[in-house]
From TrEMBL:
<dbReference type="InterPro" id="IPR003593">
    <property type="entry name" value="AAA+_ATPase"/>
</dbReference>
<dbReference type="GO" id="GO:0006865">
    <property type="term" value="P:amino acid transport"/>
</dbReference>
<feature type="domain" description="ABC transporter">
    <location>
        <begin position="7"/>
        <end position="246"/>
    </location>
</feature>
<dbReference type="Pfam" id="PF09383">
    <property type="entry name" value="NIL"/>
</dbReference>
<dbReference type="InterPro" id="IPR027417">
    <property type="entry name" value="P-loop_NTPase"/>
</dbReference>
<keyword id="KW-0547">Nucleotide-binding</keyword>
<dbReference type="InterPro" id="IPR045865">
    <property type="entry name" value="ACT-like_dom_sf"/>
</dbReference>
<dbReference type="GO" id="GO:0016887">
    <property type="term" value="F:ATP hydrolysis activity"/>
</dbReference>
<dbReference type="InterPro" id="IPR017871">
    <property type="entry name" value="ABC_transporter-like_CS"/>
</dbReference>
<keyword id="KW-1278">Translocase</keyword>
<keyword id="KW-0067">ATP-binding</keyword>
<keyword id="KW-0813">Transport</keyword>
<dbReference type="Pfam" id="PF00005">
    <property type="entry name" value="ABC_tran"/>
</dbReference>
<dbReference type="GO" id="GO:0005886">
    <property type="term" value="C:plasma membrane"/>
</dbReference>
<keyword id="KW-0472">Membrane</keyword>
<comment type="function">
    <text>Part of the ABC transporter FtsEX involved in cellular division. Important for assembly or stability of the septal ring.</text>
</comment>
<dbReference type="InterPro" id="IPR041701">
    <property type="entry name" value="MetN_ABC"/>
</dbReference>
Length: 358
């Protein structure tokens, strides 16, 4: 089927009756996911991420709207036809969902057994999958003997057994330590590139999104509140929640602890002469790698104290964030930074130590 891994969600709605009344888990959600894309859905607990993911294979049937996968409207299919289409959509889970008594090989073979494939064909499919996920030497082990990362590799191999076009990942790395998370994400990226698989993953960790997603949707109360390339959402978030999540990746700088009661987020006024201003500068665009700090000091003769700085690569593009304390011609500094198309935000102001002492 051409375009088998493309997903179109059209005006999905889903309500649940919870203990405190009706909850709108999906509120008019429309979304196109391209074949071969790694798409992330992020948001707080209860935002509707799982409901959205599970709507893609109709494990959760929406009350309203259409789910079109590879050009086929799943919501219009008979139970039998839906079962068939679902084979094209694999799924992996936070808690792996492996069968404890079955060996690694037999766990991966299970969907093929259920589909009635002959033993020889099952072997011919499972063996290369175990190699793909790096578990060829564990085929005879039971899951209890494996680490969390290895269990998730079994889950991935099992999800791939039916040769799906789409892989849904439901918090697949949430139970893993950061290093194992990284290795699983690397594996998913590898699978995406080698097999051209579309991957839709939900997570509450922006670090996961940053690592592998091409695009990301941010959800809140059943709605998509921000949608864009991972780079754009991380570096230029528009919605307050997206901003908060993106900022969560930056090292925390407690300005009120650093400067005590001299720090204020209120705009600078005449009552605070001689103070300094704290700026957050983001380095993207054509001047992302220009020596801006030295330039500022030279041009405007300001005092500039670097409080924190990070440089990151998102989807292979450099992105830096620096927090600085500027004493002197702040207005001119702000105008200059903006003219360079750098992001700049005033985080607050610090009264001069001298005035406090008086
Ligand atoms: N089967 C259900 N019955 C009743 N309410 C449900 C059911 N499934 C989900 N909900 C509610 O729908 C809303 C969205 O839930 P959902 O699990 O999709 O959110 P989520 O973003 O995946 O959250 P989490 O990260 O905690 O898994 C929540 O308010 C949840 O309590």
């Amino acid at each position: 089927m051409a375009n088998g891994g493309a997903i179109q969600l059209e005006a999905l709605g889903k309500r649940f009756l919870g203990p405190s009344g009706e909850v709108s888990a999906l509120d008019d959600v429309s979304l196109d996911i391209a074949e071969g894309e790694i798409f992330g859905v992020i948001g707080r607990s209860g935002a509707g991420k799982s409901t959205l993911l599970r709507a893609i294979n109709l494990l959760e049937r929406p009350d309203r709207g259409r789910v079109i996968v590879g050009g086929t409207d799943l919501t219009a299919l008979s139970a039998e036809a839906l079962r068939h289409e679902r084979r094209g959509i694999g799924m992996i889970f936070q808690h792996f969902n492996l069968l404890a008594r079955r060996s690694v090989f037999d766990n991966v073979a299970l969907p093929l057994e259920l589909a009635g494939l002959p033993k020889s064909e099952i072997r011919a499919r499972v063996t290369p999958l175990l190699e793909l996920v790096g578990l060829a030497d564990k085929a005879g082990q039971v899951p209890a003997k494996l680490s969390g990362g290895q269990k998730q590799r079994v889950g991935i191999a099992r999800a791939l057994a039916a040769e799906p076009k789409i892989l849904l990942s439901d918090e697949a790395t949430s139970a893993l330590d950061p290093q194992t998370t990284r290795s699983i994400l690397t594996l998913l990226k590898d699978i995406n590139q080698r097999l051209g698989l579309t991957i839709v993953l939900i997570t509450h960790e922006m670090s996961v999104v940053r690592e592998i997603c091409d695009r990301v949707a941010v959800m809140e109360q059943g709605r998509i509140v921000e949608l864009g390339s991972t780079f754009d959402v991380l570096t230029r978030p528009a919605h307050p929640l997206a901003r908060e999540i993106a900022r969560g990746l930056e090292p925390e700088l407690k300005l009120d602890q650093l400067f005590g009661e001299r720090f204020s987020t209120l705009p600078v006024t005449q009552s605070m002469p001689g103070g300094s201003t704290i700026l957050r500068i983001t380095f993207t665009g054509p001047n992302a790698e220009a020596p801006v700090i030295a330039d500022l000091v030279r041009r405007f003769n300001v005092d500039l104290n670097i409080l924190s700085g990070t440089i990151d690569y998102i989807q292979g593009r450099p992105y830096g964030v620096m927090k600085v304390e500027v004493t002197g011609a702040v207005e001119a500094v702000l105008a200059y930074l903006k003219s360079l198309e750098l992001g700049v935000e005033v985080l607050g102001h610090v009264r001069s130590a001298l005035r406090t002492a008086l």
